[in-house]
């Protein structure tokens, strides 16, 4: 009898199922703006990072089509070999202009941008200081690099300062890396304090603007711009896959930084360049996002309205602004029940469970886009009221009297 070398997978699957943590892929089909179909059911979509409502915009589709006609679909090679087309160069120049940066490096995805950038900047003998709620790609980047990871409590720059002081002289290079807008909470990092700390200790500073680009700051330049420190963040990393409705990642910074990344970031050097069509679509999105500021204004406005209405219904909504509205429910099962109820009611809102968020902080992550209409927000509040009333009844049932 042979031994099944994969039996451990079943054990993990059973544990996961017992804890209510199993996740599955469910295919969707995009509908009208702000809507999707799942298993043939129309749903209002509160789960997309397409914050400006551009991913399905006919102008992006057309720009992609034109570029595909000229350059073909696949880019065929990594950027240093022959995957870098004029469409890539144009996009890199447009982003550099937008960011007010000397140069921009492009990566296949935002995730790859974080992995490759961190691995190119630090290694064994170096240290990276990261916020506890940093995105997975920042954490994995540190692992890939072989540098030491120091995690500080969320937003706690005093703690970071004391750890930096204690570590003084211990590491060769140091990098402070943070989400600009935290992906599961929607709040902004304390960037003015982080900039000052980085200056004081001579650390490199990387801000991941995945949820900031296009949404926050002057002209949509991101959270560093919103907090008035864009020109003091030397490594500004972003994605083309969220507000810009396409696919890809970028790093904006000095010419010497970008030249270093082009030569040393493994996810740039050894990975095929994004399709020229994706670059062209992102460039078109960048142009539209600047010409149509109402998209950014709309998503902030409905965010404010939704937060205040859900708080009035008694929900725990952390302090944040913009399109990410978390509703903290507690246990994974509660978040899943709420998401299932929303889905039954025609609304797609994801339940976010550990390990994506800390234990006991399972939540609904409502994500808003400029494509959502007022009716959709009203409907969401109405269904959430039903959930709150149901939870209220549950509490009474568990009351000993
Ligand atoms: C989504 C996300 C990324 C990864 O970007 P992709 O382009 O989707 O790979 C990186 N950082 C943060 C904070 C994100 O939320």
Structural notes for this entry:
Belongs to the class-II pyridoxal-phosphate-dependent aminotransferase family. BioF subfamily. Residues 42-383 form the Aminotransferase class I/classII large domain. Pathway: Cofactor biosynthesis; biotin biosynthesis. It is a single chain. With 401 residues, the chain is an alpha/beta fold. Helix content is 44%, strand content 16%. β5, α6 (136-145) and β6 (148-152) form a beta-alpha-beta unit. It is globular and about 60 Å long. The protein starts with 6 loop residues before the first helix and ends with a helix.
Pick out its properties.
single chain; 401 residues; alpha/beta; Aspartate Aminotransferase, domain 1; Aspartate Aminotransferase, domain 2; 2 domains; 7-stranded mixed β-sheet; 4-stranded mixed β-sheet; 14 strands; binds pyridoxal-5'-phosphate
Strand order of the largest sheet: 4-10-9-8-7-5-6
From the spread of the alpha carbons, the general shape counts as globular
> Going by CATH, what is the homologous superfamily of the largest domain?
Type I PLP-dependent aspartate aminotransferase-like (Major domain)
What's the main sheet like?
A: 7 strands, mixed
What binds here, in terms of ligands, is: pyridoxal-5'-phosphate
List the helices and strands and how they pair.
Blueprint: H1 7-18, E1 28-30, E2 35-38, E3 41-45, H2 58-71, H3 79-83, H4 86-99, E4 103-107, H5 110-121, E5 127-131, H6 136-145, E6 148-152, H7 157-166, E7 174-179, H8 191-201, E8 204-208, H9 223-226, E9 235-239, E10 249-253, H10 255-264, H11 266-269, H12 276-291, H13 294-312, E11 324-330, H14 332-344, E12 347-348, E13 351-352, E14 362-367, H15 374-397
Parallel strand pairs: 3-12, 5-6, 5-7, 7-8, 8-9
Antiparallel strand pairs: 1-2, 2-3, 4-10, 9-10, 11-14, 13-14
Bound molecules: pyridoxal-5'-phosphate (PLP).
Family: Belongs to the class-II pyridoxal-phosphate-dependent aminotransferase family. BioF subfamily.
Enzyme class: transferase
EC number: 2.3.1.47
């Amino acid at each position: 009898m042979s031994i099944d070398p994969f039996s451990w997978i079943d054990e993990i699957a059973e544990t996961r199922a017992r804890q209510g943590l199993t996740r599955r892929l469910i295919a969707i089909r995009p509908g009208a703006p702000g809507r999707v179909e799942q298993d043939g059911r129309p749903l209002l979509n509160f789960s997309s990072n397409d914050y400006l409502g551009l991913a399905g915009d006919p102008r992006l589709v057309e720009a992609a089509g034109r570029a595909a006609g000229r350059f073909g679909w696949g880019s065929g090679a990594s950027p240093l070999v022959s995957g870098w087309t004029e469409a890539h160069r144009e996009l890199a120049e447009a982003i550099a202009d937008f960011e007010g940066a000397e140069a921009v490096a492009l990566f296949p995805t935002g995730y790859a941008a974080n992995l490759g950038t961190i691995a190119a900047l630090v290694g064994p003998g170096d240290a990276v200081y990261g916020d506890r709620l940093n995105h997975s790609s920042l954490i994995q980047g540190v692992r890939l690099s072989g540098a030491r990871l120091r995690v500080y409590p969320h937003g706690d720059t005093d703690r970071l300062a004391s750890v930096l002081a204690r570590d003084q002289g211990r590491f060769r290079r140091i990098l402070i890396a943070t989400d600009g807008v935290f992906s599961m909470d929607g709040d902004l990092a304390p960037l003015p304090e982080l900039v000052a700390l980085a200056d004081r200790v001579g650390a490199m500073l990387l801000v991941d603007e995945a949820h900031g680009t296009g949404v926050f700051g002057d002209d949509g330049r991101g959270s560093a711009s919103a907090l008035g420190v864009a020109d003091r963040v030397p490594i500004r990393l972003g994605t083309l896959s969220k507000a810009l409705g396409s696919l890809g990642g970028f790093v904006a910074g000095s010419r010497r930084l970008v030249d270093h990344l082009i030569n040393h970031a493994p996810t740039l050097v050894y990975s095929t360049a994004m399709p020229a069509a994706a670059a062209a679509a992102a460039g078109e999105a960048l142009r539209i996002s600047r010409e149509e500021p109402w998209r950014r204004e709309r998503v902030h406005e409905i965010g404010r309205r939704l937060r205040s209405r859900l708080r009035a219904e008694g929900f725990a909504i952390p302090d944040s602004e913009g399109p990410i509205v978390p509703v903290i429910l507690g246990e994974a099962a509660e978040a899943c029940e709420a998401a299932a109820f929303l889905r039954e009611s025609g609304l797609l809102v994801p339940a976010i469970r550990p390990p994506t968020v800390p234990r006991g902080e399972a939540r609904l992550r409502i994500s808003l886009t400029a494509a959502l209409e007022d009716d959709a927000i009203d409907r969401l509040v109405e269904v959430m009221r039903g959930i709150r009333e149901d939870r209220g009844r549950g509490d009474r049932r568990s009351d000993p009297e």
